[in-house]
Each structure stands twice: as C-alpha cells, then as structure tokens.
Amino acid sequence: MVSRIAIIILFHVFLSLNSHPAKAQAWIKAGYWYYHTDLPLSKINSTLYTHLICAFANLNSSSYHLSIPSSDDFSAFTNTVKQKNPSITTLLSIGGGRANYSTISAMAGNSTYRKSFIDDSIKTARHYGFQGLDFSWLSANTSDNMANMGTLFEEWRAAIAMETRNSSLSELILTAAVRLSPPLDSVSFPIDSMRRNLNWIHVLAYDYYLPEGFKFTAASAALYAPDSDVCTDTGIGAWIIEGLPASKLVLGLPFFGYAWKLANPTENSIGAPATGPAVTKEGDMSYKEINNYSKTQGAVGPIYNSFYEVNYVIVGSDWISFDGVDVVRIKVSYAKEKALLGYVVWEISQDDNWVLSQAGIRMFLNRKMFFDQCDNNDVKRLSLID
Ligand SMILES: *[C@@H]1O[C@H](CO)[C@@H](O)[C@H](O)[C@H]1NC(C)=O
Ligand SMILES: *[C@@H]1O[C@H](CO)[C@@H](O)[C@H](O)[C@H]1NC(C)=O
Ligand SMILES: *[C@@H]1O[C@H](CO)[C@@H](O)[C@H](O)[C@H]1NC(C)=O
Ligand SMILES: *[C@@H]1O[C@H](CO)[C@@H](O)[C@H](O)[C@H]1NC(C)=O
Ligand SMILES: *[C@@H]1O[C@H](CO)[C@@H](O)[C@H](O)[C@H]1NC(C)=O
Ligand SMILES: *[C@@H]1O[C@H](CO)[C@@H](O)[C@H](O)[C@H]1NC(C)=O
Ligand SMILES: *[C@@H]1O[C@H](CO)[C@@H](O)[C@H](O)[C@H]1NC(C)=O
Q1: Distance between CA atoms of 262 and 9, rounded to whole angstroms?
Q2: Gene3D superfamilies per the record (predicted)?
C-alpha cells in the first residue's frame, strides 16, 4: 500500500516537473544574506542558490531615500556572489523586522514621499548592481497601511517599467516579504495590487511561537498542526484563497530554531510546560549553533516529529526545536507539490557547512531515494497534499 502511494506521488512529481511552460519563472532557490552576520561575502557558496537577497537597506526619515548600512559590502555584493555563480540574480531588500514603523508608514502615506522613495530605490539598485528590489514592511498593521502599500506597489511597478523603457537594462524584479497569513484581525493585504505588480512574494513561514510569549514547547515553523490552524500549510492555503496564485508564492524556510527552558525535564515532548527562553536571551539559535550546542553538551536527539514536521533536541532542561535536513527536504517537497514558485531561506549564514542549503537541491537530484527513505507517516502526509 505504502509503495503504491509512493509510486502515485512520484508520478505526480514527474508530471509537475515536466509541465512548466518554457517562459515561466524557473524554480527559485533564494536566500537572504544579512550584512550584520559573521559570513563574509567571499565565503557565500552561491552555487547553491538562484537568487541572493542583500538585507537590509533602510529609509531616511527626512528624505525618504535609502540608507545603506554598509556601503562596502552592499556595493561588492553582486560582483562577489557572481564570481562563483555568474547566473545568480541579486536583490536588495528594504526594511526588515527592525525598520522604523513610523518612517515607512509616513512614506507610504504621502505621494510626494513615495515618489522620492521609489525613484531613489531604482537609482540605488542600479548604482549597486542589484537586479531587483524586495520590500519588507512586516509591521504594516492598519487598513490605511495596507491601502497605501497597494498604491506604493502600483507606482513602483510603473516607475520600474518606465525606467526599463528608457534604459537598455532588463526590468528590475520587485518582490515583497510578508507574514504567513494575509488576514490580520480586520486588515488584509492589498492582494490585487500585489498580484499585478510584484514578481512574487516571500512568505516568512516561521516564528509562530516564541519562547518569551508561549510557556510551552512548540514547533515555531510547523508545516502542519494536528490540533490548530497555526501552521504553514494553513497560511499558504490562506494566501491562495485570498487570490495570490501559488505560482507567486515563495516559501520561507528558517535556518534557525528556538530554545525553551523546560518546567520539568521529564516532560519533554511538543506542548510540554516551559518557563521561557533558554540558551540565549530570546531563545533564538542558528542551525549551526544548535548543532554545536548539541554536540558539545551531549544532546538527546535530534528527534523527528512528522505530525508537525520539526526536529528537536533535548539538553538537560533545554528543549530546542528547529528544521533539520529531513524537515527542509519535506518542506521543499511540499513547495513543489503545491506548485509554489520556490523557497527562500532566512538566513544563509546560519547554515552549518551548507548542509541545509544542499538539502533543498539534493532532493531534486535524487527524488526516488528521498521517498524510499520516508517513513509511513511521511508518505501518508505527502499523499494528503494532492
Ligand atoms: C558549494 O556547493 C557545491 C554544490 O553543492 C559543492 O559542490 C561545493 O563543494 C560547495 N563549496 C563549498 C566551499 O562548500
Ligand atoms: C537623511 O537625509 C538628510 C537630508 O538629505 C541628511 O541630512 C541626513 O544626513 C540623512 N540621515 C542619514 C542617517 O543618512
Ligand atoms: C522613527 O522615525 C521617526 C521619524 O519618522 C522618529 O521620530 C523616531 O524617533 C524613530 N524611532 C526610532 C526608534 O528610531
Ligand atoms: C506630503 O508631504 C508634503 C511635504 O511635507 C506635504 O506638503 C503634503 O501636504 C503631504 N501630502 C499629504 C497627502 O499628506
Ligand atoms: C502598528 O505597529 C506599530 C509599530 O509596531 C505600533 O506602534 C502601533 O501601535 C500599531 N498600530 C496598531 C493599530 O496596532
Ligand atoms: C523616460 O522617458 C519618458 C519619455 O519617453 C520621460 O517622460 C520620462 O521622464 C523618462 N523617465 C526617466 C526615469 O528617465
Ligand atoms: C560551541 O559550543 C560551546 C559550548 O556549548 C562553546 O563554548 C563554543 O564557543 C561553541 N563554538 C562555536 C563555534 O559556536
């Protein structure tokens, strides 16, 4: 029975691999590089990606022009990553989780400021050699914000198209990074404008549960949730129902996890009582830190849970959940099965010797071997996707 299901899945995968029209955007393997990390540009293995995104440019609160935090890195970015992979595409990301809400909000709400911002963003992208722009306004939280964001994308696309007509350069890509789920209380994203004006969106499918706010252990980037709607599968479904086609969605993969302090070390499954963050101040740990911590401290695990799609390790009373190689493969496979446009990693320096980056690629080279390795739960789960 199991092998019959596997064969059906393989057949569907085979069909989907062969049904892409020639002109469509090819499968995207994107990664963010955050300048404030310990991974120098020259060490990036860009052969593992199709797109690399340099993060983050900021907004000047009086001119609404971009400010570049590290002009040496940002100007070297494109040339450096193209040395190992000449066909890679680079984008400049603007904003990010720490961007000033009132500055972006003021820019988006005023047509003079918007024009200033848009013109400068295009000029800056060209000046530094980026092939696209990514807008990451994660704090947008009012219906005015959302309406203004829609107008911004409209005007931005028009300006980009105009710039292309006037220059001999190819048109800049325009993308946005968004939270997992489009409805946010009463405000919802400007779906129509996003569909018409953006090449695609990066769906940041993680941080559902953080150790500071949730006093129980959890899968912070669960693909599925047996007992709630808080999971990637539900969020991706919501974007599609709201009107963004799967072919515009790029699935975010976290190369980090979270550590909780167990209230009682003998209760250590998902949902066990916890007292707060462990190991670091907010409990966040990169994949390579988790591996190192596990090795040096003699962790139990990694344990794999196929109901949520998550790994976790236990070190005494520290409980750390994350996406390991097997989970990354399952999520990449999910993105393919759902006919999404690809995946985007936050953040490439958090990988450990590029093993997670390679996991996404290898699974396409050796798809059959991957499915042969799945246990029964994985096969059942994948068969539900159809
Ligand atoms: C970069 O990735 C490629 C493809 O997986 C691999 O062959 C190569 O060894 C990697 N290089 C480094 C320096 O890790
Ligand atoms: C912002 O722009 C103003 C006016 O162009 C300039 O005087 C100021 O130095 C800029 N601030 C930063 C932080 O770049
Ligand atoms: C954000 O920008 C506004 C101006 O737009 C400024 O008044 C405020 O101090 C800034 N906030 C932070 C935290 O930098
Ligand atoms: C936009 O900002 C400019 C310059 O501060 C101001 O003159 C104009 O009234 C503002 N427009 C709106 C719609 O707020
Ligand atoms: C929106 O977010 C900003 C920044 O986080 C916050 O200051 C503001 O109170 C929020 N507004 C609403 C309506 O939630
Ligand atoms: C592009 O060319 C049009 C006329 O064809 C002109 O009106 C416009 O100002 C130019 N825009 C830029 C950004 O050069
Ligand atoms: C690995 O972890 C140990 C302790 O758990 C720490 O002392 C060491 O600095 C870590 N090494 C790296 C490269 O993070």
Answers
A1: 39
A2: 3.10.50.10, Glycosidases
Residue of the nearest CA to atom 10 in ligand 4? 110
Ligand 3 atom with the shortest distance to the CA of 102: 5
Assign 16 a pLDDT band (cuts: 50, 70, 90): very low
Domains of the chain: total: 1
Q: Which atom of ligand 3 is nearest to the CA of 103?
A: 5
At 209, which CATH number? 3.20.20.80
Ligand 6 pocket, residues with Cβ under 6 angstroms: 162-163, 166
Does the global pTM surpass 0.85? yes
Domain range holding 364?
4-254+324-380
How far does the centroid of ligand 4 lie from the alpha carbon of residue 111, in Å? 8
Q: Is 110 in the pocket of ligand 4 (CB under 6 A)?
A: yes
16: in domain = yes
Is residue 204 domain-resident? yes
Structural domain includes residue 259: no
Q: Give the lowest-confidence range in 291-295, 329-333, 361-365.
A: 361-365
Is residue 67 within 6 Å of ligand 2 at its C-beta?
Answer: yes
Whether the CB of 61 sits within 6 Å of ligand 3: yes
